[in-house]
Design a protein that fits this description.
The complex is a heterotrimer. By secondary structure, chain A is α/β, with parallel strands linked by helices. Chain A has helices at residues 2-26, 46-53, 79-90, 108-114, 128-131, 175-182, 197-202, 212-221, 247-263, 265-272; strands at residues 56-60, 63-64, 68-70, 76-77, 98-102, 119-125, 135-143, 145-150, 167-171, 186-190, 207-211, 226-228, 236-242. In chain A, helix 3 packs antiparallel against helix 10. Chain A starts with a helix and ends in a 19-residue tail after the last helix. Chain C is flat and about 80 Å long. Chain C has a domain at 79-266: MetI-like (MetI-like fold, Orthogonal Bundle). Chain C is mainly alpha-helical. The chains are: A alpha/beta, B mainly alpha, C mainly alpha.
């Protein structure tokens, strides 16, 4: 009896220690970015103003694994966060001086319009309707809408055509949902992507569909339960949202992004975050569109 | 403005869902509330205890958690996944204690002579409640019952986070399409809610006058 | 325990009552056992994939992480912070609304009534979102404003009902000794109305605390959003049931304490004193209306 009890206690302690160490391992994956020491910008530009202020407010997602995920400490981590740190560094702002604000789909444009945030880097897909309200720098990553199914693919879903007439889960009001409706699927609307996993497990839906990086993050968190079909059927260019009229800032960010492609900092940012699950892709060419 | 006109069918669909949630949950919650109120004052001690525990537990839990229990936990444990029905269930359970409390206060307000007279002609507990006390109690608390109903209307917006697209959820859909007219869309949704709640407030007074018991 | 509604139970009634109690208890225990066995069974997904049951330790191992508990404490503090400030503001706004609504001058009374009906008619979710997007004051203040305005409107109506239930003599004597109408209201009517409606007001404040959970829509990291969104997404959706149990316990603890406090206060104030001729004698006497037959839209704690 005593042996059993001490075995049980040490088992629990061991689990606790393992859990703790697992947690500390997953805390704060970061690429090292040091802020530029001496930078000067032209008078009157947003870059100069931000450099002066020494701080920048960036809106990002707090609930997307791999891209923008806030843990118990409350600070977000992910690829979007690393891109934000990259840009801030080039502005001469240290990573801990960035103020992170959570942006959800409903408030990305209002926040930019009212100036509550300076940039939005939040798996923000560039499209023409949004270009009327905000400006986009980048894209800095090209995702594609894909499909997540149960491991073993019991319903044999190979592509979006197989979803016609079936129940699929996606997030209310997202671009993914719209694409699914157009493809003829019956959409079960959820509040967040991870809410879609329970209906998938219980069979209420046959698949979950959104951008492939989000799906990869979900599959990774729940080892072995799900798989990504890996047949993207749309192109979702992620851009950096900023105020509509600020063309100088946009051009500067585009230049910064192109530089980061060349000098490897973009790849470092990827490897430190999303690269743990996904392979390193080729960076997309930035789009310097005229308004 | 044009965003609202363009997406009016979406709004109407959401509004229809809201109405459906409201009517179904409201009637079920009222029935459940009457039952719980009767249990609270019944002679059987265990029924009293159960009703009290139920009321305290449910009143002190946020609606989001109750809906989580019904819409996420129950399907995971194997119940059929009709999300609309589960949301109605959750809203019913959440609203019933408030109805029960309102009805109980109505029972408090019925003059004791009524119950004494009922007992003195030989009616039992159930009969007294059914024939004498409850009809009067319900008539006396019409405004608070309508208030609970109005609150239920607004609580349906929380169901939007649990796989049911009612009008608040529809607003999210339209905002994602037309991020430039967020304010107009929210005002339009507010108007939809006011279409339900303001007339309810008016007819509360009317109904009360109609069914009032003159003493 | 006697009541007007039923006689003191005789032997047959007692036996029936006991049988019903036993059957009821067995039924409830059966339901609980069913629930526990369902929870303890391993989860089988549609494709046959088996994951540990919900009561399995592997679903609860994240709670050994100190960071989680620190974060939970921060979330609770965020909730309380918003609730306390919103409660104080709601009381102030309630008094103002009540003033406006019962004013003699129509050009104050009518707009106040319109505003009151508007704010009572729209969901708190919408009010918070609207304040956030239109005024851009940040998530915390948008949430506080939404909660304060909505609950202020309800408290205002409760105060109005309280004032209406006061004997007319109070106001008349106030005016008779030379106080202005405003002073009469402030010094004589409001304190009495407040004391009489205190149970309702405190119950509404409990509702306010629960409604802080609605601040998820403006991304405020109160405890519900913190646990059910951030932590769930961080640790994986497999933990969502354990997290749900924890946050449910937190809310029940806080709210039950507040409700108990409300009952203690109700018992000590005038409204709690037992009134004559009450039908039911069981349970604490929490009258929702001092004048149960009265009309008017002042109401009990509204969700």
């Amino acid at each position: 009896m005593r042996l059993k009890k001490s075995l049980l206690i040490s088992a629990i302690a061991l689990t606790g220690v393992l859990a703790l160490s697992a947690c500390t391992n997953s805390a704060a994956p970061e690429a090292e970015v040091t802020p530029e020491a001496e930078v000067s910008f032209d008078e009157g530009t947003t870059m100069a103003a931000l450099n002066e202020a020494g701080t920048i407010t960036i809106g990002t997602k707090f609930d997307q694994p791999l891209f923008g995920l806030a843990g118990p400490t409350g600070d977000p981590e992910g690829f979007d966060v690393e891109i934000g740190k990259l840009i801030a560094a080039k502005l001469g702002i240290a990573a801990d001086k960035i103020e992170w604000v959570e942006t959800q789909s409903k408030n990305r444009e209002p926040y930019l319009q009212s100036g509550q945030v300076d940039l939005v880097i939040a798996t923000y897909t560039i499209n023409d309707a949004r270009k009327e309200v905000v400006s986009f720098a980048g894209p800095y990553y090209e995702a594609g809408q894909d499909i997540l199914v149960l491991a073993g693919n019991p319903d044999k879903i190979e592509g979006v055509e197989d979803l016609a007439g079936k129940n699929v889960c996606s997030v209310t009001g997202s671009t993914s949902e719209k694409n699914l409706v157009e493809a003829g699927a019956t959409v079960l609307p959820a509040a967040g992507y991870s809410d879609c996993l329970e209906p998938l497990r219980s069979g209420a839906v046959v698949a979950v569909s959104t951008d492939n990086v989000i799906l990869a993050g979900l599959a990774d968190q729940n080892e072995g339960e799900f798989e990504v079909v890996n047949n993207p059927f749309t192109a979702e260019p992620y851009g950096i949202g900023l105020a509509l009229e600020d063309d100088t800032f946009r051009a500067w960010i585009n230049d910064t992004l192109t530089d980061s492609y060349d000098d490897g900092t973009w790849a470092d940012a990827w490897e430190a975050t999303a690269g743990k699950v996904l392979d390193l892709p080729d960076p997309p060419a930035v789009d310097n569109y005229t308004r | 403005m044009d965003a609202i006109i363009e997406y009016f069918p979406t709004f109407l669909q959401g509004f229809g869902r809201t109405l459906a949630l409201l009517v179904l949950s409201g009637i079920s919650a009222l029935v459940l509330g009457v039952i719980v109120a009767a249990m609270r004052i019944s002679p059987v001690a265990s029924l009293r205890g159960f009703a009290t525990v139920y009321t305290e537990l449910v009143r002190n839990t946020p609606l989001t958690l109750i809906l989580f229990f019904f819409c996420v936990l129950l399907p995971a444990l194997g119940s059929p996944a009709n999300y609309f029905g589960l949301a109605v269930f959750g809203l019913t359970v959440y609203t019933s204690p408030f109805f029960a409390e309102a009805i109980r206060s109505g029972i408090n307000g019925v003059p004791i002579g009524q119950a004494e007279a009922a007992r003195s002609i030989g009616l039992g507990f159930g009969q007294t409640l059914r024939l004498v006390v409850m009809p009067q109690a319900l008539r006396m608390v019409v405004p608070p019952l309508i208030n609970v109903f109005i609150a239920l209307t607004k609580n349906t917006s929380v169901a939007g986070g649990f796989f049911v697209i009612e009008i608040f959820g529809s607003a999210g859909v339209v905002i994602n399409e037309r991020g430039d007219e967020v304010i107009a869309i929210l005002l339009a949704v507010a108007c939809f809610y006011l279409i339900i709640t303001v007339p309810l407030g008016f007819i509360a007074g009317r109904i009360e006058k109609r069914v009032a018991i003159l003493r | 325990m006697s009541s007007v509604l039923y006689d003191v139970p005789g032997p047959k009634a007692r036996r029936l009552s006991r049988i019903v109690s036993i059957v009821g208890v067995i039924f409830i225990l059966g339901l609980v056992a069913l629930l526990i066995s369902a929870l303890a069974a391993p989860r089988v997904a549609v494709n046959g994939n088996v994951t540990p049951s919900l009561l399995d330790p592997s679903r609860w191992d994240i709670f050994s992480d100190v960071q989680l508990w620190i974060g939970l404490g921060k979330g609770i503090w965020n909730t309380l912070r918003m609730a306390i400030v919103a409660a104080v503001l709601a009381l102030v706004i309630g008094v103002l609304f009540c003033f406006g609504r019962t004013s003699e001058t129509p050009w104050v009374r009518v707009p106040t009534t319109v505003l009151l009906e508007f704010f009572r008619g729209i969901p708190v979710l919408l009010l918070m979102l609207f304040t956030l997007l239109v005024f851009g004051i940040g998530a915390y203040w948008a949430g506080v404003a939404g909660l304060a305005i909505y609950n202020g409107a309800i408290i205002g109506e409760a105060l109005r009902a309280g004032i209406r239930s006061l004997p007319r003599g109070q106001r008349e004597s106030g005016l008779a000794i030379g106080l202005t109408p405003v002073q009469t209201r402030l010094k004589i009517e409001f304190p009495q109305a407040f004391r009489q409606m205190l149970p309702i007001i405190i119950a509404q404040l409990v509702v306010l605390l629960k409604d802080t959970s609605l601040a998820y829509v403006i991304s405020y990291p109160e405890v519900l959003r913190y646990v059910m969104t951030y932590l769930k997404n961080y640790y994986g959706s497999g933990y969502q049931f354990s997290l749900f149990a924890v946050v449910l316990a937190v809310y029940l603890a806080i709210n039950l304490t507040l409700s108990w406090l409300a009952r203690v206060v109700a018992r000590r104030t005038a409204a709690g004193r037992k009134q004559k001729g009450r039908l039911e004698t069981v349970g604490p006497v929490v009258p929702l209306y001092p004048d149960a037959g009265g009309s008017g839209s002042g109401g009990g704690a509204i969700l």
